[in-house]
Amino acid sequence: MTTMMSIVIMAIIAMTSTAITSTTTIPMLMTPSKPAARLPRSRRGPTGVPERIAPPVEDCTAIDDKEAAALYRLMTWLSPAFPVGAFSYSGGIEWAVEAGDIGDAASLRDWLATMLADGPGFCDGVFLAHAHRAASLRDARGLREIAELAAAFVPSRERQLETTAQGRAFVEIARTAWNCDGLDAMVCGCDGSIVYPVAVGLVSAVHTVRLPPTMHAFLHALASNWISAGARLIPLGQTDSQRVLVLLEPVVAATTKRALAASCEDLGSATFRADLAGMRHETQYTRLFRS
User: Fold this and answer.
1) What secondary structure does DSSP assign to 184-225, as a single string?
2) Fewest 10 Å CB contacts: which of 6, 74, 115, 232?
3) What is the pLDDT of residues 26-79, one digit of tens each?
4) pTM of this prediction?
5) In a 10 Å sphere around its CB, with 0-12 CB exposed, 13-18 middle and 19+ buried, how is residue 44 labelled?
6) Cβ neighbours of residue 184 closer than 8 Å, sequence gap 6 or more
């Protein structure tokens, strides 16, 4: 009797085990497998590791060689690391801070927005545009005339030093490290000192870098350098400095559009206080900057 009961119990255990195995394996056999590329991005594989998803086609489209070269040159020429000495000039901001016109991020933003839209930012953009167009056409006479006008347009001695020193350094480095056919001839055709915006317009044109991105990058670099000066003088933290740059983005974009469409008859400045700041900086008792 005992033997018979043992046999029955063992048979029941075997049947139960078989049933459990069947119910756990059948759903796994019925689970469909999908290619990795068709799974949702949030889907994980059987091991819990995210499965690799093929990127959209547009993500793989590279810019052509000409665009890549132009972008590389602009990022290099207008980087703070390009040795034109921009870090040593404040454009009169040093006096404005001492006088109390600029004392925080908000007042710095307002001051720079005016300088960009209605002062040296806009004027330099116009000079850059006309220099770029003349150099693109290999118009030596037109380039010389715009270079002379730009050199005569600055309102103070230190501003003259700032723009001519940076222009000279930009041209010298371009001719040494970034020379190309036609650059020497265009530089010689200017027949005199070349201010900074004219230098940038001339060199970018000879390198066949398009005018609109050149203009935008130039004004961005100009605003960034002014913010850097303000950050050291006020002083400002890095986060506040970046907030000022964010707020100036639409001003840079709007000034770029205006300068691209402007003629030399549209040149003019309404930043009288900033011009006075540049003049009074010449006799300021303690100074960190050259302008």
Assistant:
1) HHHHHHH-S---HHHHHHHHHHHTT--HHHHHHHHHHHHHHH
2) 6
3) 344 444 455 554 544 545 555 666 666 666 666 667 889 999 999 999 999 999
4) 0.81
5) exposed
6) 175
CATH number of the domain at 256, please: 1.10.4190.10
- Could you list the residue range(s) of the whole structural domain that residue 114 is in? 74-79+88-280
Do 111 and 102 touch, CB atoms closer than 8 A? yes
Assess if residue 206 is contained within a domain.
yes
Given a contact cutoff of 8 angstroms between Cβ atoms, the answer to whether 123 and 255 are in contact is no
28-32, 50-54, 173-177, 226-230, range with the lowest pLDDT = 28-32
Of 276, 220, 209, 223, the residue nearest 66 (C-alpha):
209
Question: Residue 10: in which H helix or E strand, if any?
Answer: helix 2-30
Domain assignment of residue 58, yes or no: no
Decide if 13 is inside a domain.
no
DSSP string, 235-279: T--HHHHHHHHHHTHHHHHHHHHHHHH--GGG-----HHHHHHHH
Percentage with pLDDT > 70 across the chain: 79
Q: How far, CA to CA in Å, does 288 sit from each of 36, 111, 224?
A: 60, 19, 18
Q: Which residues pair with 50 in a beta bridge?
A: 44
Other CB atoms within 10 A of residue 55 CB: 9
Q: Does 43 fall in a domain?
A: no
In the numeric block, which tokens belong to residue 170? 């930009």
Structure tokens at 239: 């986060």
